[in-house]
Design goal:
Elements: H1 3-22, E1 46-50, E2 55-60, E3 64-68, E4 76-78, H2 81-92, E5 118-124, E6 127-134, E7 145-147
Antiparallel strand pairs: 1-2, 1-5, 2-3, 3-4, 5-6, 6-7
Length: 154
Amino acid sequence: MTKGTLIAVGFCVLFAVVYALTREDKVQVGIRQLSLQNVEADQVDDITIAGGQGIHLLKDKAKGWLLELPGASHQLVQADDEAVKRFIDAAKGIKSSFFVTELREKFPEFGFIEGKLTYVTLRNKQKPIWDLEIGKPAQGGAALCNVCWRQRSF
């Protein structure tokens, strides 16, 4: 073999090794990913679910979870602690995915239609851990979530 052939074969081997060491199974160039903060049940002390009639749950150290009844009286009643724990465990199962769009005019295409949204906020010491908009479910039954970056008051 000539010197030129050996150099060409050497470069091919070098490129193959570099490729094998640096390849990714899924190419994600230019795609922003979302990440949601991990939620632990003991961190959450306030849950708000708005949409429809809305639900507001507060954690009391002595009494457990309390449900604030809708209306002007703000009456608190005992909530089912196990049901709230299951809700928080289910929230832990929500996985972040890829960023879709920032264009509000595109939101209806993804099920984010005003009046048909559900808002879920999990708080710790009045600071939001999660603030999500859940869109109208698509035909397959799945709904998209939008992470809200702005402060919302209910």
